[in-house]
Design brief:
Chain lengths: ~350, ~290
């Protein structure tokens, strides 16, 4: 990559960049048109894929970019969902105003959980966050919070109506709204990760001591990225709650956190586009597994998972990039564009 | 006062189960520096195996021994087949594989044995001892744990194989040069962890009853216990397991009630990791630059 830049690949990078911009615009256009070709239920499913993609982008910042494993992001997803549901149900807030509040609540919660997590590395952090995930449904059911959370029963919310000037039904509107939020969140995420902060996070992942020696404030970055990551996941949780129209403690069990981490790894660590592949995996693979074996779908899921670790350790995004690289080399070494996706 | 004593004693009894599970975790951690998230489900699978054997008509202790042997073999096989190819994989891949194993065991057990709760027999007399302070099963479970601990200590301290296993865990390269087959030592460690887990599963099953999700909470407490005692110290793991068991029982009875018990495990884990990450008896790790 460094060589390519020196030997005059800068224009090539720019061309690749504009191609990428074009591709993003095309994908966005296709995504906008998507709900008009799908049934309401399928639209709902794709809405959830987008919500998961936002959550995975958040988890990716933490796990993929800064190398801290979290098995507890379901807790932040739950917190975001509950904040949105409580505001809509108890205080009659319009649905779209709940997202910033859910995000802010999770930012603070994530930052606070990130402070003790600073001292934990690798498996220890995985363990502490796993405990958080296991404890979440119990906390939500707890008598102390019952006035707010509705206890075991959970909270139902109403599906938001589309604005009058648009000829779409509520499902389609919710999808388009989620798509807009997704685009915004990915723009923010991309801007955070591509520059100085992204480099600092990667440096922390690769070699914390060296990063510290280079002047990166490891402690600050680590707890901040925990907070920001939780914020993304919380916003995703709020979107998910609005789409499903219901939150209950048992939908936020430890398996939700596991599904999120699995989606991330399958989609591709440290690659922004991986979040979408992961979202698709989370939403649709359980159904496929269910079709293969009604009796033990999670076993099929587990086999998928271990198989992925052997076959595609860098996830779908990494696998695609690898294939693209091979294709390029095969076409000839002369026009290797620099830069990676 | 009597009820406090009762709570402490029955806490020690559950603590002995946590101690065995923590011991199993530490076995694998010491040798490979992996925390096996599937340990609880492996123990659950072993317990179902024991249940089937007893159901097929075997006497309890025959089933007990056979289950331990089969679990040992399965643990070895798991290490050789699933984990060996991932020796140099990053931590995250391993976490994913452990989670994969966890859901596979859980799901297959639910598939074969259904999710209905089964009772599991206890080999110990049921009548209460010491004026109702402790049930026969509780005392039995505690003794089994302590006997197992003693056997393990003797094995690691006084046998050639135990010495080789310790050497392989401490310094794989030198041990290999000295002729220890390090790969097999790791597999043996896995086998022993699976066997210890099987014992723990069979001891707790009469208390919590048998179902595919029975070990989720136990595993978390075992983690907490292992951390309290020091994740790299088998003795510490046992002490930590007992401490957590008593703490859980006392807090459940006097402080927070049963519904927030798992949250207590979370608090213990995070608390230990923040205040004293090496645990009570663990070595303090210094990372060299």
């Amino acid at each position: 990559m460094a060589n390519a830049t020196i030997t005059g690949a800068a224009p090539a990078t720019r061309i690749a960049g504009s191609w990428r911009a074009l591709a993003v615009v095309l994908v966005l256009a296709a995504a906008t048109a998507l709900p008009f070709g799908l049934s309401d239920y399928q639209t709902f499913q794709v809405t959830l894929v987008l919500a998961y993609a936002i959550a995975l982008l958040g988890l990716n910042m933490l796990t993929g970019f800064s190398g801290q494993i979290s098995l507890g992001h379901g807790a932040f997803y739950a917190l975001g969902g509950y904040v949105a549901a409580i505001l809509m149900d108890r205080y009659d807030w319009p649905y779209w105003t709940t997202l910033p509040v859910a995000g802010a609540a999770c930012l603070v919660a994530g930052f606070l959980f990130g402070l003790p997590a600073l001292r934990l590395e690798g498996l220890y952090l995985a363990l502490a966050t796993l405990a958080l995930a296991v404890a979440t449904p119990q906390l939500l059911k707890s008598k102390l919070l019952e006035d707010w959370t509705g206890g075991v029963q959970g909270i139902s919310v109403l599906k938001p109506d589309p604005p009058d000037f648009l000829p779409v039904n509520p499902d389609q509107w919710l999808y388009l709204f989620t798509l807009g939020v997704t685009a915004l969140m990915f723009l923010i995420g991309w801007n955070i990760l591509r520059g100085r902060i992204g480099r600092a996070l990667r440096a922390i992942r690769e070699h914390p001591v060296a990063a510290e020696a280079m002047g990166v404030n490891t402690a600050l970055y680590k707890s901040l990225v925990f907070g920001v990551s939780a914020m993304f996941t919380g916003i995703a949780g709020a979107l998910g709650a609005i789409a499903i129209q219901f939150v209950a403690p048992d939908s936020f069990d430890v398996f939700l956190s596991i599904r999120l981490l699995v989606g991330l790894v399958v989609g591709g660590l440290g690659a922004i586009s991986g979040a979408f592949w992961g979202g698709l995996f989370i939403q649709f693979v359980p159904n496929i597994a269910d079709q293969i074996s009604k009796a033990a779908p999670w076993a099929i899921y587990g086999i998928f998972l271990i198989g992925f670790m052997y076959a595609m350790p860098t996830g779908v995004a990494g696998g695609l990039r690898l294939m693209a690289g091979r294709l390029r080399r095969w076409r000839g070494p002369a026009d290797q564009p620099g830069g990676d996706a | 006062m009597e009820s406090l004593l009762h709570q402490v004693l029955s806490g020690l009894a559950t603590g002995s189960i946590y101690a065995s599970m923590a011991l199993a975790l530490v076995m694998i951690y010491q040798a490979t520096h992996h925390l096996n998230f599937a340990q609880g489900e492996m123990a659950m699978a072993s317990t179902y195996l024991a249940w089937s054997l007893i159901d097929a008509g075997l006497p309890y202790w025959a089933a007990f021994v056979l289950t331990i042997a089969l679990s040992f073999a399965a643990g070895v096989a798991l290490e050789r087949i699933v984990l060996r190819p991932l020796t140099n994989a990053p931590v995250l891949s391993l976490v994913i594989v452990f989670i994969g194993l966890l859901v596979i065991f859980n799901s297959v057990a639910g598939w074969i044995f259904t999710y209905t709760i089964k009772t599991f027999p206890s080999p110990f007399p049921t009548q209460p001892l010491f004026g109702g302070l402790l049930s026969g099963h509780e005392l039995g479970a505690m003794s089994v744990t302590l006997i197992m601990l003693l056997l393990l200590y003797l094995f690691f301290r006084y046998t050639r194989l135990g010495l080789a296993m310790r050497a392989a865990a401490q310094n794989p390269v030198s041990s290999r040069l000295a002729g220890v087959r390090v790969g097999w030592m790791l597999a043996l460690g896995w086998g022993m962890a699976a066997a210890i887990g099987a014992v723990a599963g069979m001891m707790i099953a009469p208390v919590v009853f048998l179902d595919p999700n029975m070990m989720a909470g136990v595993l978390l407490y075992a983690f907490a216990g292992a951390l309290v005692g020091g994740i790299d110290n088998p003795m510490g793991a046992v002490v930590g397991g007992f401490i957590v068991g008593v703490l859980e029982n006392l807090a459940g009875a006097y402080l927070i009630g049963t519904e927030l018990k798992l949250t207590l495990a979370l608090v213990v884990i995070v608390g230990v990791l923040v205040v004293k990450p090496s645990g009570l008896l663990g070595r303090v790790l210094v990372s060299r630059v």
